[in-house]
Write a structure and sequence with these properties.
Layout: H1 3-17, H2 20-39, H3 47-69, H4 91-109, H5 113-123, H6 129-136, H7 140-161
Helix pairs in contact: 1-2, 1-3, 2-3, 4-7, 5-6, 5-7, 6-7
Length: 176
């Protein structure tokens, strides 16, 4: 049944895309979709209209894909017009991030061993204060003191790294 509409559809698509091969692909895909729908038991009352609607939808999809992909090659643009890399991939930002991590790591490592252990278990391993107390065999009150000391150490590290940030709002989770 589709054979009688195929040539007509192909002519229509050639006029739309100005490319015989692309039009043939679209016509074939349209016919395939209609046949798939028919073989699944769906009743199509006007096969010609449905075939054309399917082809138009495929044309719209193709047009949208082209619009998304349409961009100028970086090699053809002057270097001054190249888009910048995301901020976190900028060399200065990456270096600053590594330096900050090193500073915080050094500050945490400088804590007394039991204080550091309680702080790391609570902040980085996300254990509750009661779980930390049980694991370390100390009171919850002592865990709280260790965590506060670790937080103050990190806050001081932050103040040293970014003096202007020390007046801003702090993270509700960590107080850092």
């Amino acid at each position: 049944m589709l054979e009688r509409y195929h040539r007509e559809l192909l002519s229509f698509l050639i006029r739309q895309v100005n490319d015989h091969d692309a039009a043939a692909d679209l016509a074939q895909e349209s016919c395939l979709r209609v046949l798939t729908l028919q073989s699944s038991g769906q009743t199509i009352f006007d096969v010609r209209a449905f075939l054309y609607r399917t082809a138009r939808n495929l044309l719209i999809d193709q047009s949208r894909r082209k619009a998304v992909r349409q961009h100028e090659a970086l090699d053809s643009m002057p270097e001054a017009q190249h888009p910048p890399a995301p901020r976190h991939l900028q060399p200065e930002e990456a270096l600053a991030s590594r330096q900050n991590i090193h500073a915080y790591t050094t500050a945490i490592e400088a804590l007394p061993p039991r204080c550091r252990e309680a702080f790391v278990l609570h902040i980085f391993e996300d254990l509750s204060q009661a779980e930390v107390a049980q694991r370390m065999g100390i009171s919850v009150s002592m865990v709280e003191k260790h965590i506060v000391r670790g937080m103050l150490t990190c806050k001081q590290c932050r103040h040293t790294l970014m003096p202007e940030a020390s007046t801003g709002a702090e993270s509700p989770r960590s107080g850092l």
